[in-house]
Structures are given as C-alpha cells and as structure tokens.
Amino acid sequence: MKTIIATEWQKLWKRKIPWLLLAVIPVMVYAAAKFCQQQNRALTPDLPQYTVAGNFPILGLSEMLMTVFNLVATIIAALIVTEEYRSGSLRMVLMRIKSFQQLVFAKYLVLISYLFVYLLVYFLVCYGIGLAMFSCPDTYPQFYHQDPVTWSDGFLYNLKFYALAFLTLIAISSVILFFTAISQTMTTALGVSVGYLLICFAYPNFIQLFSSIAGNEKMINIFFTSIPMIQWEGITMMLAETPYLLGWMLLILISYFILFQLLLLFVTRKKDMFI
Predict the structure, then answer these.
(1) Rounded Cα–Cα distance for residues 200 and 224 (Å)
(2) Is 106 a residue whose pLDDT tops 70?
C-alpha cells in the first residue's frame, strides 16, 4: 500500500498543473490583500472585518476557500482519476494491482495530501504578505469574541481555522472524487463537480425564503448541510467564544465523508469497469 501511495504521489508532481496551481498562490493572496486594503477604507479598526496582519490569513482565505480551493480539489481529482482513465494509463496500473480499492484509496490520500500542502503554503504566504501590507497591532477584534485577541491567541485561532478548513476539504474531496470516478471525460468530471458546487451555493439561499414557515432554527440547520456554506460562515461560528452548531456541522462533514466513501467503494468494486 505504501508503494502505491508513493507512486501516485510521485506521478502527481511530474505533472505541470499541480505546480502551476501552487505558483499562483502569491498572486491570489496579493489580490486578496489589495481587496482587504480597499475594504479597510470603509471600516474602523474596532471591527473584526478590519484587516490587520494577524487576521489576514483568515480574511484572505474566507472567500477563496469555498471557491478556489474547491476548484483546485476538482482539478486535481479529475487529473489523477478521469484524465488517467481517458489517457489509458489507469488501465496499465489496474493490470498490476490486486485490489482496485487500494488504488482509489491511494489516490484519495494523494488528493487530500496535495490540498494540505496547498493550504499550508497559502497560510505561510498569507502571513508573509500580511506582515508586509498591513499594520501589526498587539491586539485586534476577532469574530464572535467579546474581547480583542493578542497576536499569539490570534495565531492559535488561525491554526484552528485552517484545521477546520482542511476538514471541509477532506469531506468535499470525497464527493468530488466520486464524481470524477464515474466520469469518463475531464469535461464531464469538471462539469458535474462544478454543477454540484453551484447547487451547494444556491439551495441554502433558496430555502431561506421558507424560514417563516419551517422555523428559523430548522432553516439554519439545513443551511449548514452545504459544505461551501460551512466554509463560508460555519467555521467562524464553530470557533466562536461560545461555539454554535459545532456538533451539527462536524456531523455533516463526517456524514459526507462516510456516504461518498461508501458510494465510491460501491462503484469501484470491480476494477474491470475502468479497463
């Protein structure tokens, strides 16, 4: 199993696209920093939305997480599964292994490992650019916290935020890998995955129209059945001074992971479907 994972990991880095995606991180972070600088002109430093060096890793990630990071997961998954199937290289691998499930699990580990590296590099670049472009006060306000946080407290908060962000990427990677496994072309894989993400953006806002009928509490629970919505607002709520819906959102992430791992196991139970 270790040999399969190591081989898949090496194959990933022999491609240009994973390197290219990493190379654009500084550009993405710089663009986010310029946007935050513009926002600061309309805000006061006593607001948690006001960007300083300490909270820029969070504010610079919040929008990118539910868009760019999910798209990166889609591209890498399609690259290591659908593209290999289309090119025929997956057939060659399947002829040399006994268990197709091992190969699928190895590819899943490679996918989430790449996302971990991507998230880590993004975190480090955010701190570097944040220190260069924003002020560095000793304390600053934090979302859903009454008292300002110190630099060290803020750093620990940022680590927790990125850890939960990684959990959301683990969950959504299960979904995306399933879609890429059942797709026979890159276009289909990307189209289905992007369509799924668009639905996850749309239905939480649509159901809010019925909050007066079903009740606000039930609507909030349904709202956070969407992984992108957890990425957008849910993480800050889970890390609030008094955590809100922490258990519910963790349950949703675990449920997505288990459900789509089982579906993936079901559709890949016979390796000759890819030969």
Answers:
(1) 10
(2) yes
